[in-house]
Amino acid sequence: MFADVLLVIDLQNGVLKDGEQEIWHRDELLEAITSRIDTYRDNHIPIIFVQHEDELLQAESEEWQLVSEIDHRGSDFYVKKRHANSFYQTNLLKVLTKLNVRSIEFCGAQTDYCINASLEFAHGLGFNNVMKHGYSSTYDNRFMTADATIAFFENLWRERFVKFI
């Protein structure tokens, strides 16, 4: 099953590595998303890369760049954001409208921030959201481990905001 577009959120050097700590299951996440990108490309379905920008992720800096393991091309679409919600004060909705998108497949980082905010907002706009289990990741926090956080959000989203495929 495919959505009308694959939305890849914040797979940036400075997001997937915080100081010396890597995001939970970094290599597995990138392998899974790379496979999904390849599948979408093979089926000529658009891919949108979202990149977060702030004081730690300054535009064009090494930390801001997409990780080298991800195949991104000039023919793909790119959105720069300054908020967890990928729609907030960006051109994302305009790009989706231009592409006649009704369904979005989500993947990327971080589960509890940018994925959550963007996925729930897209649902509120009427998009049909899909996702594969484990195609987002995050870090341990003071309340939960990363894997518990991912499980919590996937359970929260299931059949409310996203259909898991």
UniProtKB/TrEMBL annotation:
Gene source species: Lactococcus fujiensis JCM 16395
Identification of the protein by name: Isochorismatase hydrolase
Similarity-based family: Belongs to the isochorismatase family.
Molecular function terms, GO-annotated: hydrolase activity
Domain Isochorismatase-like: 5-131
Pfam families for the chain: Isochorismatase
InterPro entries for the chain: Isochorismatase-like_dom, Isochorismatase-like_hydrls, Isochorismatase-like_sf
Coiled coil: none
Keywords: Hydrolase
Alphabetical list of CDD domains matching this protein: nicotinamidase_related (cd01014)
Organism lineage: Bacteria, Bacillati, Bacillota, Bacilli, Lactobacillales
